[in-house]
Design a protein that fits this description.
It contains four helices and five strands. The longest helix is centred in the first third of the chain and has 17 residues.
């Protein structure tokens, strides 16, 4: 049986349209890569739609990687997101089942070396 792999990018959310546009741009780029069978976005801030649990329920994938598009382990990453999906609170990568699907909550992207390069690129526009 072939298992479908999904990616859910979780951002904070904002009332400003540009925030969603940036999230959609990342989603589209990753979707075009073909690395995942489906790619969705969700928002951790209350009242922003879709929420991570809503997005996961709408996905068909058997395994879903949840990537917090956050700079660090703040409250949304360590408490809100895990609680929403029935996972233990705290730091680190987490795996479990939600809505009959295997969920992997990944670490926030903040310490990734490529984020460092993005900071330098913003200052110098070298890429």
């Amino acid at each position: 049986m072939i298992k479908l792999r999904g990616l859910l990018i979780v951002g904070h959310g904002s009332q400003l349209d540009h925030y969603r546009e940036v999230m959609e741009k990342h989603r589209e780029r990753i979707e075009r890569s073909g690395l995942f069978d489906e790619v969705r976005i969700a928002f951790a801030a209350r009242k922003r739609k879709p929420s991570p649990d809503e997005a996961i329920r709408s996905m068909k994938s058997d395994v879903i990687y949840v990537v917090p598009l956050f700079i660090s382990y703040g409250l949304h990453v360590t408490e809100d997101l895990p609680e929403m999906l029935g996972f233990p609170k705290g730091r680190g990568r987490k795996e479990g089942i939600f809505d009959g699907k295997k969920i992997v909550i990944c670490e926030p992207i903040g310490e990734d070396y490529l984020v460092t390069l993005a900071i330098v690129n913003s200052a110098l526009r070298i890429f």
